[in-house]
Structure formats: C-alpha cells, structure tokens
Design a protein that fits this description.
The chain is mainly alpha-helical. Among the domains are: about 60 residues, no CATH class; about 140 residues, Helix Hairpins (Orthogonal Bundle). The protein has a 3-stranded parallel sheet, with helices on one face. Helix 6 packs across helix 10. The longest helix has 27 residues. The protein is flat. About 5% of the residues have low confidence. InterPro entries: Dimethylallyltransferase, P-loop_NTPase. It holds the Pfam family IPPT. Belongs to the IPP transferase family. Keywords: ATP-binding, Cytokinin biosynthesis, Nucleotide-binding, Transferase. One of its GO terms (molecular function) is tRNA dimethylallyltransferase activity.
C-alpha cells in the first residue's frame, strides 16, 4: 500500500514566544518518531512529583539535579537551569525501568547517521541533497517533503526588529508583552524560572520590569529603548541559530519567502502531487546559500531602524503605565 505524503513548511521565526528550546526536538519527533521510552505509572508520577515539587517550591535546582544524577542519570546536570519538566521526566523513566533517558535510541539520531553516511562523499548543496530523506523514507510512516521559507538575512532581521516593536504596542497593561510579563511577575514567577519565562521577549520584559520595580516604577526612555534593543538582539540571534539548524538538516528545500506568494503556493502544490521523485526547487524560488559580498557588507553594517519607538515621547505612555502599576 502506498504511503501518504506529508508536506511540511517551516518559516524562520514563526513564533517568538513559543518554546524555542524544544522546537528542534518537536520537529524531529514529528518526522522520525519519539524515543520508545516507558510511560510512568500513576504511582511513579506521584512519587516523583512529591520528591521534586518540594525542591522546586524552594527554588533548589541544584539539589534536585543531584537527586536525579544520583538516581542514575548523569546527563541531568547538563539540563537548562529550571527545566523542571525534563528533570521530572528523567526521574520518572529511571524509576519505571532503571535506565536513564539517554539509554533509549532516538530515531532522529539513527536516520541522521544513515543520511550522513549516504552523502558523505557527495558534493551536493543543501537544496539538491534534500532528497536524501528518500533513501530512508520506506522506514517512515509517511513520505515527508520538507521546505524552509526564509528571507535574505538583512530583510529577515529588519522584519524581526519591527515584529518586536509590534509586540509592545497597544494599551499598556492590556495588550502587548509587557502586560503579560507583569502578570507572570505578579503570580510569583521569576525570569528564566521555567520554559515560559525563558522565552525570548518574556525574559527580557520581566527583567526590565523587575529593575523598574526595584526603583518604585521609575524608568527612563533610555532604559526602555535599551530593553527593546536587547529584545530585538536576542530575537535576531535566535533566528540565526534557527538558520544554522535548518542548514545542517539536508532534508529541507530552502525557498525564498520574498518571492510572490502565488508562485510559492503553486510550486508547493505541484511538489505535493509530484510522483516522479525528481522534484527540484526552480531557480527563481531557491534561496541562495552563499551570500554575495554586498550582502555580507550589509550584514556587518546592520543597524536597527525602529518604526514606532524612535523618540523619547514615543514610549511615554508605557513609562506612565510602569510608574502607576508597579
């Protein structure tokens, strides 16, 4: 029986506030499958919750990590600080079967090893080597066709900077990321204490508001613009890491997102129904992997140009809200 085809389309910086740390892993699991680790019983889940919740409530991350390391998972010490979900899951797996999570084969790692071996002597570039998945596709439940849409780096960075500004617009306290960050602080969370407060934008906003609270709600326009610049820089750096990750995954066909939408959609539709197995991205839609000297120079000289927050007066409403609500 023929397998169904699944077309997967990713866009760089799709959601700045999503769980950025787990994005690559979720993509891997979706395509290749999750590791076959045992599911913990309700008794084990309750036991682990009891052991770790006490330490989490007092913020003793170090002791919690040592508990899991001593239980049998030495790699727990390399988890991101305050990643309580993964720490809890590691202890559940150990108690369920006596083995740490690293003892179970990750399907993605197996496929990547096979793929690396099959193309090690090939000089094909990313776009043309994307068909390498086809060599192993008979072992997957579906035939995956994977695309990655992105713009030239300077254009991408420009749109990211504007997106960060947009997330600060609206009525202060009701709309925008600052109001959400204040709510997280009000319920007792600290920046970088869990996956939500580690997310780009939330972390910077919470840290900024914490500094304002220490000064009884006082903030200068310069301090606000410094927070915005840090938010924008962290977002651009995340986009750069995304590009690096996708560039190292040769199953993705790279598409130029600046091209007309109707042409991109026509190509994707044809690619989905293509049965020849020789589908190639047309030159007019292909994102160039190597930047020109001009593009490299533009990247080196890149400077943020804000659209909404330019002068001191542009953030006065936000500063008034901070002064009266913190």
């Amino acid at each position: 029986m023929a397998k169904s085809s699944v077309l997967i389309l990713f866009r760089c910086i799709k959601d700045l506030t999503s769980d950025q740390q787990n994005q690559p892993q979720l993509r891997e699991w979706y395509i290749y499958g999750k590791p076959d680790v045992p599911k913990a019983s309700s008794d084990i889940t309750s036991e682990v919750h009891s052991e770790l919740t006490r330490l989490q409530n007092i913020g003793d991350w170090y002791s919690a990590v040592q508990l899991v390391v001593e239980s049998g998972d030495p790699k727990a010490q390399y988890l991101a600080a305050n990643d309580w979900y993964r720490l809890r899951r590691s202890l559940e797996i150990i108690k369920a079967c006596g083995l740490p999570p690293s003892a179970f084969e990750v399907p993605y790692d197996s496929f990547k090893h096979q793929r690396s071996s099959s193309v090690s002597n090939s000089s094909l570039v990313t776009q043309t080597s994307a068909n390498a998945l086809g060599d192993q596709s008979h072992d997957l439940d579906y035939d995956f066709i994977c695309f990655f849409l992105t713009n030239q780096r300077v254009d991408l960075y420009r749109s990211i900077d504007l997106r960060c500004e947009d997330m600060l617009l609206g009525k202060p306290g009701c709309d925008g990321i600052l109001g959400e960050a204040k709510w997280l602080l009000d319920v007792g969370l600290s920046p970088n204490s869990n996956s939500a407060t580690r997310a780009i934008g939330y972390r910077q906003a919470m840290e900024y508001l914490e500094r304002c609270r220490e000064r009884q709600g006082q903030s200068s326009a310069g301090e606000f613009h410094a927070f915005l610049a840090e938010f924008q820089r962290a977002s651009r750096n995340f986009a750069k890491r995304q590009l690096t990750w996708f560039r190292n995954e040769n199953i993705y066909h790279w598409l130029d997102a600046s091209k007309p939408l109707d042409k991109v959609l026509d190509f994707l539709t044809n690619a989905y129904y293509d049965q020849s197995g020789t589908m190639k991205v047309p030159e007019c839609l292909r994102m160039r992997e190597l930047k020109s000297r001009k593009e490299g120079s533009a990247l080196k000289s890149y400077r943020t140009i804000n659209r909404h927050f330019i002068s001191q007066q542009d953030c006065s409403e936000i500063l008034d809200w901070i002064r009266t609500s913190l």
